[in-house]
Amino acid sequence: MKVLFVTSEAQPFAASGGLADVSGSLPQALRRRLIGTRIVMPLYDEIPQNLKDEMRFITSLSVPVAWRRQYCGVFEARWGGVIYYFLDNQYYFKRSGLYGHYDDAERFAFFSRAVLEMLPFIDFKPDIIHCNDWQTALVPTYYSLFYGQNQWYQGIKTIFTIHNIQYQGKYGTELYEEVVGIPQHQRSVLDWDGCINFMKGAIETANRVTTVSPSYAWEIRDPWFSHGLDPILNARSWKLCGILNGIDTDSYNPETDIQIYNNFSVDDLSGKAENKRKLQERLSLEQNPDVPIIAMVTRLVSHKGLDLVKAALDQMMREEYIQFVILGSGDWEYESFFQSMQDRYPGRLCACHGFIPELSRKIYAGADMFLMPSKAEPCGLSQMIALRYGTIPIVREVGGLRDSIQDSANGDGNGFTFKNYDAMDMLGAVRRAIAGYWQRDGWNVLVKRAMTWDLSWNRSAGDYINLYKTVINE
User: Fold this and answer.
1) DSSP assignment, residue 303?
2) Cα angle 215-221-224, degrees, rounded to a multiple of 5
3) pTM of this structure
4) Is residue 473 exposed (0-12), middle (13-18) or buried (19+ Cβ within 10 Å)?
5) 348 HSE (CA, 13 A, CB side)
6) What's the pLDDT score for residue 364?
7) Inter-CA distances, 245 with 210, 285, 392, Å
8) Are 300 and 330 in contact (CB under 8 A)?
């Protein structure tokens, strides 16, 4: 079985979020299962030069973009035994930042078309083309409209994964002639709510549509979560399923992680206590090994549940013997709120602005609890990383949080959960976690159970392979 994994970002080459972690880890797990997986992504200017130096030029080709043609260079590299292809066009990709440019629609229309155009040139005909999020959503659409009947391309199946339905690739219909290049009589594939919608086209044309957790697959059929796509998802529900993401357990390993203060293991937790001490020291928190630290590492945006935190944090800090740490950046409203709370509770609360990868690792390793009260969460990786480092998640039962965290009230879960999007419900879960923390023997059992929870890609890779086989045999 041969799979081409199409993505707009992948570790270790270029990353802006969780998609890069998935794109870097899932193909590796598939390769270990003897699946011939290759990855293709844009050749961004931001890829580190030492990684560019390892690439070799394969070929160049001319790619149709609506009424014109554009140059595309194809480069190849190997990382962890997986072959990566990089599609080069300096006009589109020699820029600062991966996304957020005025012509993103054209950039990723070019990329999607180039993916299909390059296949005969690299002598690799995949059984499955696995696309991810709106930036690659035109691949199954272009394949269905322009390539599927071509003899060389016949038999290829397409799978499209929705990592976050909020970002759909919505543009004005004037881009049909200038950018997308789809004839008038075929435009209904992309038409949605008076716009061009790249994701809608993929839902229509892909052989299967997946999400990054089982719960998210049925949540996005509800208008509350779907951002307007629930009618088409319900109409195509037969092709929709969810597979829970994993994490790279080799990278996130407290026994070997060089970015934390002290390594530790499930058999020797003394290093975790030392991580806590040094984290308190670095963040100017009171040096106290007994006080529980509740942490968040998150983007400061509303769908991460920060409205609940705003409503309950002052009461939490006044009534409970805790320390609170948050690392992130985003909306000014939340940045200024957490800065004011740091001023109000010096030595007990620390708000760190920005995203600092090495500090995030130290927070995962040094905190006692990890709070994720999300309004929506397609999968979430932070709660899995926290488990790996023995930091107990407190989460709302939504999306991938529901699928990965089980409440420990019955004695066999791995965290603390609450259902309603309500500040008092969240506060109740926090208080249960704090009460559990003071039962030291039971807490240590919970920490060890969390650290040994199966978070690897092995389970998920098996689910994807079964899906691939089903689609190929149809």
Assistant:
1) G
2) 90
3) 0.93
4) exposed
5) 15
6) 98
7) 11, 34, 19
8) yes
Q: H-helix or E-strand containing 319? A: helix 306-319
Cα(239)–Cα(20) distance, rounded to whole angstroms?
25
Rg of the chain on CA atoms, in Å: 23
2 to 170, 269, 344: CA distances (angstroms): 31, 43, 57
∠ Cα 162 168 174 (to 5°): 145
- Cβ–Cβ under 8 Å, residues 14 and 84: no
* Cα gap 231→181, rounded to integer Å: 26
H or E element that contains 72: strand 68-79
Token pair of 30 as six digits: 């598939």
Phi, psi angle pair for 83, to nearest 5° = -85, 130
> Alpha-carbon distance 201 to 221, whole Å?
16
Neighbour order of strands in the sheet with 128-132: 56-65, 68-79, 82-88, 36-42, 2-6, 128-132, 157-162, 208-211, 240-242
Give me the amino acid identity at 411.
Answer: G
Structure tokens at 86: 């990089």
The number of residues making up the chain comes to 474
Cβ pair 285, 387 in contact under 8 A: no
Look up residue 227 and give its DSSP letter.
Answer: T
pLDDT at residue 112 in the model:
98
Contact (CB, 8 A) for 88 and 43 = yes
* pLDDT at 455 (0 to 100): 86
404, 428 contact by CB (below 8 A): no
| Residues facing 37 on adjacent strands | 3
What type of residue sits at position 376?
A
Q: Quote the CA–CA distance of 386 and 175 in Å, as a whole number.
A: 43
DSSP string covering 99-111: S--TTHHHHHHHH
Beta carbons of 394 and 416 less than 8 angstroms apart:
yes
Contact present, 4 and 27 (Cβ < 8 Å) = no
pLDDT digits (tens, 9 = 90+) for 84-106: 999 999 999 999 999 999 999 99
Q: Quick one: which H or E segment has residue 358?
A: helix 357-366
For Cα atoms 354, 434, 339, give the angle at the middle one, nearest 5 degrees: 25
**Residue 26 tokens, joined:** 């899932």
The list of the chain residues with pLDDT below 70 reads: none
Q: Which residues of 84-123 are buried (b: 16+ CB within 10 A; e: fewer)?
A: bbbbbbeebbeeeebeeeeebbbbbbbbbbbbbbbbeebe
- Rounded Cα distance between 348 and 189, Å, is 54
